[in-house]
Structures are given as structure tokens and as C-alpha cells.
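anyone seen this seq b4? input:
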Amino acid sequence: MNAQIVTIGREDFLANYWQYRAGEHVTILGPTDCGKTTLGYQLLERTITPKLPALSIIVKPRSPTAEKWNKRLGFRVVREWPPLPSIWHPRKPPGWCLWPRHSFDPDKDDYTLWKECRKAILDSYKRGNRILFGDEVYGLAVELKLHRELVAVWSRGREMNTGLWAASQKPSHIPLWAYSQASHLFLYFDPDERARERFGEIGGVDPKLVSRAVMGLAEHQCLYIRRKGMNRDRKSVV
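predicted toks r here
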């Protein structure tokens, strides 16, 4: 098959090429500080509606990027799930950000993160009509041992219109489902050969071609692969 890779500016892509249907899964992969969080929120800005709000889950103690985008998009930041009623936020926001507080004691923090994140994931799965953005899915799946809960959304969330948007800096460690179930994939430059070996699990693409394309990306560029709804051999650099 002849594959076609085209270069598209980020704003042009977001305005004219990005198309999302409720329940589709998105995976964003790349090393730390490459722009995954920014891209995730940029996509949310173009996607969320009153009928399809977002819930972003942050497991880091600090993230200036998430703080900036939560404010820009009007997301309500909450420390536990479900959020308690607030006189300061009487109206339904366009989205929420679950960001549990950290005591910097791993024993305490891991339990709190596990408890609150688990409730948020299962609530999104049950209620449907929501975008669930896991800003570091490795932390959720491996460190907090929420692999089973995430797989439930990956495997059955589509029917509930719950899309799992998974970002990770550890492509070689995250579940296979992040590759096999995602309709939209964004891959940044990654020098780690183990990470690039996982591209063979995407399905419907030539892993050698994808690996070569990723190795040629500039800083903050990413390779976009849309596996459904368009020619599977068409890929874009954005």
C-alpha cells in the first residue's frame, strides 16, 4: 500500500481536520515536556459541548500547563469525586478537572489518588456522554493499579459515548488497549526503541513507516493517525 503523510499546521488541523464522534478513544504518546497536556486540552477546546463535557484527571502534584488550560476552558477543579455542590459554581461547567491534593507521603497519596480516580473513571463509564482525559495513563494503569477500570472504558465505553483520552510518556509500559482501541493517535518523537516497537500494535498501519516518521519529527510536532472514518493509510504531521 502507498501511504501518504502530509504536514499540517496545528491551528489548521484543529480548525479544519479534527473530527471527533462521541465515544471514540484518543491516545497521545511522547516523552516528558513534548506537549501532550497542551495538545489534549487544545483538542478538548474544539470538542466539548454542553452534551459532551470533559473530565480531566491529573495525578501530578503540580502542572502549570493544566492550571492554565483549566482556567482558559472554564473547567471546575475538584479534589474528590463526585464534586460537592458549590455556591461559587452554581452552573454546570463545560468540564471538570479531578486533581486530588498531595501530602507528599506516597502511602497516603497513592490511596487517595486510587480512591478518587477510580470513582471518576467508573462514574464516567456508567453515566456516559463524557470525555475522560487521563493526563498520565501510565500512572493510572500501573502505579495506581486501575488497569481493569480503564480497560472497561476502552472495551465498552464506546456504547456509552464515553471516550477515554489517554496521554503517556511511557509508550512501552501502557496497556495494549491504548493502541488497539484508539480511533485517533498522536505520536511524538521518541528515541526509545522499546516505545517505537509498540507501534506495531496500533493495527492497520505499517509500524516501520510509523517509526521512521516519528523519528523525523521536529520538536512539538506529532504524527496523527486516524484509524476510522478516513483512509487508514493517510497520516498527518501536526
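The chain has nine helices and ten strands. The chain has a mean pLDDT of 92. kinda curious what u guys think
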